Structure formats: C-alpha cells, structure tokens
Amino acid sequence: MATAPDKPVVLSSDWGNLSPHLIASFWPVDRKGKRIEDITVKAAITESNLEMSLNWSSPFENQGAQNITPTLQQMVQSGSIEGLVGKADSVFGSDLQRLAHGLEGRTAITKLNSTQVFVGAAPATFNVTALFRAWKNPVEEVHKPFDQLMKWVLPVELSEEGSLAARLLQDGFKYATTFPSIAPVLLAVKYKDATYWPLVIESISKDTNSPVDKHGKFVELTVPMKLTTLAAIDRADWSRYLDNNIGVNSGQRR
Prior knowledge:
By secondary structure, the chain is of the alpha+beta class. It is 24% helix and 27% strand.
C-alpha cells in the first residue's frame, strides 16, 4: 500500500469557472471505500453513461407443450394440421378435423409458463470520456493527471519469477506464494450526483494523435475509459453511491 503524502495532492487541468458538477474526481480506495492515497485526479467529462445488465429468464417456457414436437405445434397454430387429419380413417377423421380446426391460431404459451425469474446480474459498467487540457502548463495539467490514472490502472507490480520452485530457492518459504504479483488498485469516482466505489478500470485509451506543443508535450488528451463495479450491485449499494459524505480533496477517510 502506498504511503500517503503529508499534503493532499490534486492533479487536474485548470478549468477556471467550469461547473464542478462537470468535473469527475478519481482516487484509490480499498474494498470498503477507505481512501488509501491522498492523491486525487480530476478531469472534465465529455461523455458518460452508467449501464446495468440484469438477467431474467423464462424457465417454464414451453412446459405446457413439452410433449408436443415443435413441428406439430407450428402445424396446430397455422392450421396446417387440419388437412393432415382430414386424410385419417373416416370413422375418426371428421372428429379429428373439427378438433384441429378448433386449435387453429392457438398456442401453448401462457402467462404462467412464460413468467420470467431473476437469474443474476453482471457488475455495473461506467463508460466515461475524460478530458485533460492545458491552459498554462502541459506537464502539470495533462501529463501528470493522465500518468497517475495509468499508474492506478496498471498492476502495482508483476513478479519477474514465474516458477514457484525458483521463488522458493531465491526467497525461501517466507515469501513463496502462487500469487507473487500485486494487482491494480480499486478506485472511487465522484461525478455529479453520486460517488461510485469500489471500481476497477477495465480499459483506457490514450489518443496519441492529440495536439502537442513545441516541446512534444500534449496540450490536450481525450481519455475514454471503461470502469466496472467490483461486483454486481443491489439497493444498498445504490443508496451508498448517493451518499456523498466521502472526502475527495483531502485525506479524509471513512
């Protein structure tokens, strides 16, 4: 875990009088939402949407006609079966034909056997496009905030050794583990009416065609990102997102 600096650090472009509601704040947290670094990255958001996928299924579908072949069901519904049964034995043919005629246009689907049940939910997806723009200093307003985002996105450390036996020989049993590397950090994102946490960044893009100054420093960067919640969310999580009593610019910890 990184050691928090003595003074909170805010990395951001200079947005002047732009409404703070149009600027998102990012900072690292643990699974319980506790801030683990006193560093905050701020960026204007040009596009954003929160998407939740909830999986519903109809497990009882076709139960009312499970012993009828799909072809026969289609023939009954379309009326094609009437011509088929009309060729049956004369004793029963007329009765079967009347029965088939009565089934024309009917279906085995009912409200009961088509009732959907909840079968699961995927983590929520938060797609945003962050904008960094330099008015005075490209390094401070564009490069530093973007570089910090990249540090949070990437694994903290990837082990050089892939073999458990090699690590045992080098470090002994004290450090031997099948999980030698350190995963990326979790993040909290405050934007407009809510604070979402904990999130992971699944993808991030750097537009290398963005304009630069005479020193080759980017003066503007558009950064699309895909963030997802650590797990599927419920009502309590949603209410928690709307609780904005979480420190953003300071070292406040929950």
